[in-house]
Amino acid sequence: MTARIGYLLPTREAIMEGRPEAEPLLGLAERAEQLGYDSVWIGDSLLARPRHEPLTLLAGVAGRTRRVKLGTAVLLPALRNPVLLAHQVATLDQVSTGRVILGIGIASDVPNVRAEFRSAGVPFEKRVGTLMECMALCKALWKGSPVDWDGRWQVEQGVIGPTPHQPGGPPIWGGGSAPAALERVGRHFDGWFPTGPGSKRWGEQWRQVQAIARDAGRKPEVLEAAVYLTLAVDEDSREAEQRINNFLSAYYGQRPEVLKERLACFSGSAGAAVEWLNGYLQEGARYLVLRFAGDHERHLETIAKLRGALAA
Question: I need a surface site. Which of 40, 83, 226, 238 has the fewest CB within 10 A?
Answer without folding.
Answer: 238
